[in-house]
């Protein structure tokens, strides 16, 4: 299992696969990913496999001051 | 004065307006277009949050359609570590290395934690960011932030969302005198006169969010703040008369009828 945005999720495939399953797009624009506390550049999403214990944050822009 | 004769420059970039706009608090994203048309802001802030779906894409879509320059913030961060990672994520997601750096001390006051703020600012400047820190109205802290390489300093007029205006105008003037980078009044603006006062005190720009987004009529308030910022800037340049304790006639006293 991995932790995705604070929730436990099965560790299957790559980061891009995860985005495809969760957001319906493996390369969504306006989105950034942190893997274990470090930004994972967009170009590395397809080739980065998920491993048990990974902590993944997926963020986007929202209204804010 | 206008954007061409009196340009607002931050980090070598000419911004189109001295009014900066936050998007937080709008009752519906459909108001964003009309608010942007009325405010014509030089920068528009957004926050970075966990994505559960891509429904928020409509926000970025509307902002990009309006052609505005984005300023992601690190709102809600309580430590330098969180703020630096949030800024890095914003840079990756939005393709800008500009950041409104916020590190708050607690969630009740929302006041800046200036120790963590300075630490985060130093780290982000080293990483190539253009850093605009939300800070207290303390001229010593402002100078430390400017010395750290921040592109502007953004002192609060009063607490975030309070609408109390500029509580300590002397402190804002002291901040203005303490740094060579632009001073942007951030937080506390409740209505047009607050924005005009900030500009009259010498601020180069005003950032408002709640004042617009939670007004009864956000579009009308957006226009009012744009005009107030322009008016205040013009008044600053015009040089106000000194305050006097006694009257001074403007009509001639000689030649009056008996």
Can you put this structure into words, describing what you see?
The complex is a heterodimer of chains A (65) and B (258). Chain A contains 1 helix and 5 strands; from the N terminus they run ββαβββ. Chain A is mainly beta and 65 residues long. A 5-stranded mixed beta sheet of chain A has the order 2-1-5-3-4, with no helix packed on it. The radius of gyration of chain A is 11 Å and the shape is globular. Chain A starts with a strand and ends with a strand. Helix content of chain B is 38%, strand content 16%. Chain B contains 9 helices and 10 strands. In chain B, β1 and β2 form a beta hairpin. Chain B is globular and about 80 Å long. Chains A and B meet through β3 and β5 of A and β4, α2 and α3 of B.
Key structural traits:
heterodimer; A: about 60 residues; mainly beta; five-stranded mixed β-sheet; 1 helix; 5 strands; about 35% strand; B: about 260 residues; alpha/beta; five-stranded parallel β-sheet; three-stranded parallel β-sheet; 9 helices; about 40% helix; globular
């Amino acid at each position: 299992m991995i932790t995705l945005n604070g929730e436990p999720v099965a560790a299957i495939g790559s980061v891009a696969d995860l985005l495809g399953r969760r957001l319906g797009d493996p390369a969504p624009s306006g989105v950034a990913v942190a893997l274990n506390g470090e930004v994972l550049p967009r170009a590395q999403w397809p080739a980065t496999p998920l491993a048990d214990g990974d902590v993944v944050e997926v963020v986007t822009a929202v209204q804010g001051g | 004065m206008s954007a061409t004769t009196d340009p607002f420059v931050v980090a070598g970039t000419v911004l189109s307006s001295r009014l900066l706009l936050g998007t937080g608090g709008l009752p519906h994203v459909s108001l964003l277009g009309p608010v942007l048309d009325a405010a014509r802001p030089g920068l528009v802030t957004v926050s970075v949050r966990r994505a559960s779906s891509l429904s928020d894409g409509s926000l970025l879509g509307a902002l990009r359609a309006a052609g505005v320059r984005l300023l992601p913030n690190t709102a809600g961060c309580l430590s330098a570590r969180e703020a630096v990672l949030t800024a890095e994520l914003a840079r990756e997601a939005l393709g800008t290395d500009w950041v409104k750096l916020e590190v708050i001390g607690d969630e009740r006051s929302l006041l800046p934690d200036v120790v963590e703020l300075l630490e985060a600012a130093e780290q982000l400047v080293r990483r190539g960011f253009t850093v605009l820190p939300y800070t207290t109205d303390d001229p010593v802290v402002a100078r430390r932030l400017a010395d750290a390489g921040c592109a502007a300093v953004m002192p609060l007029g009063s607490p975030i969302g309070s609408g109390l205006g500029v509580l300590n105008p002397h402190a804002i003037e002291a901040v203005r005198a303490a740094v060579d980078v632009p001073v942007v009044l951030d937080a506390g603006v409740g209505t047009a006169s607050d924005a005009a006062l900030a500009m009259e005190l010498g601020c180069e720009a005003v950032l408002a969010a709640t004042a617009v987004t939670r007004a009864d009529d956000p579009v009308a308030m957006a226009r009012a703040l744009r005009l107030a910022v322009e008016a205040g800037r013009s008044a600053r340049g015009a040089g106000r008369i000194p305050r006097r304790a006694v009257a001074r006639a403007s009509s001639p006293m000689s030649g009056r009828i008996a």
